[in-house]
């Protein structure tokens, strides 16, 4: 696909993050799994051994664990800007689920799209281009090259 067909935007910070202290954009994690299904084996292992460590490392994120009779275990991530991402964790190991949670924690919740330029300003310069003859009065006339003295 060409670059014209993909959406793009200027580089920006989410909620001015980085101006003051850092605020993790992930608000809530919900782990939905089945107590009996074979596809939820990795999720059950992660809940037994890794969910407490994750919660201690990320005190600003609320972690919900909900055992429900479901066929597909999933992680539902909710961000401060209101976006919700669902990731299926069918037949994943505890280590893979931990890596997925780390990835979701480090994201901002915005869609991943092409960035137009690596820089952007909200108040661009209105001075215009400058050259040595910008403010020269027109009465002086055009400048001619000097003739070398013979």
UniProtKB/TrEMBL annotation:
InterPro entries: Ribosomal_mL43, Ribosomal_mL43/mS25/NADH_DH, Thioredoxin-like_sf. Residues 35-108 form the Ribosomal protein/NADH dehydrogenase domain. The keyword Cytoplasm does not apply. Residues 130-150 are annotated as: Disordered. Its main location: mitochondrion. It is found in: Mitochondrion. It comes from the Eukaryota. GO terms for biological process: mitochondrial translation. One of its GO terms (cellular component) is mitochondrial inner membrane. SUPFAM superfamilies: Thioredoxin-like. Keywords: Mitochondrion, Ribonucleoprotein, Ribosomal protein, Transit peptide. SMART domains: L51_S25_CI-B8. GO terms for molecular function: structural constituent of ribosome. Belongs to the mitochondrion-specific ribosomal protein mL43 family. This is Large ribosomal subunit protein mL43. It comes from Neolamprologus brichardi (Fairy cichlid). The lineage of its organism: Eukaryota, Metazoa, Chordata, Craniata, Vertebrata.
């Amino acid at each position: 696909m060409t670059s014209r067909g993909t959406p793009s935007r200027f580089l920006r910070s989410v909620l001015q993050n980085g101006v003051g202290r850092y605020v993790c954009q992930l608000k809530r994690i919900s782990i939905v799994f089945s107590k009996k299904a074979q596809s939820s084996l990795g999720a059950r292992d992660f809940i037994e051994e890794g969910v407490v460590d994750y919660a201690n490392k990320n005190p600003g994120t609320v972690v919900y664990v909900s055992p429900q009779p479901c066929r597909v275990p999933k992680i539902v991530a909710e961000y401060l800007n209101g976006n919700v991402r669902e990731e299926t964790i069918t037949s994943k190991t505890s280590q893979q689920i931990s890596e997925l949670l780390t990835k979701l924690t480090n994201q901002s919740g915005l869609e991943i799209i092409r960035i137009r330029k690596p820089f952007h300003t909200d108040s661009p310069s209105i001075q215009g281009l400058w050259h040595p003859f910008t403010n020269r009065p027109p009465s002086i006339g055009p400048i001619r090259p000097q003739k070398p003295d013979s």
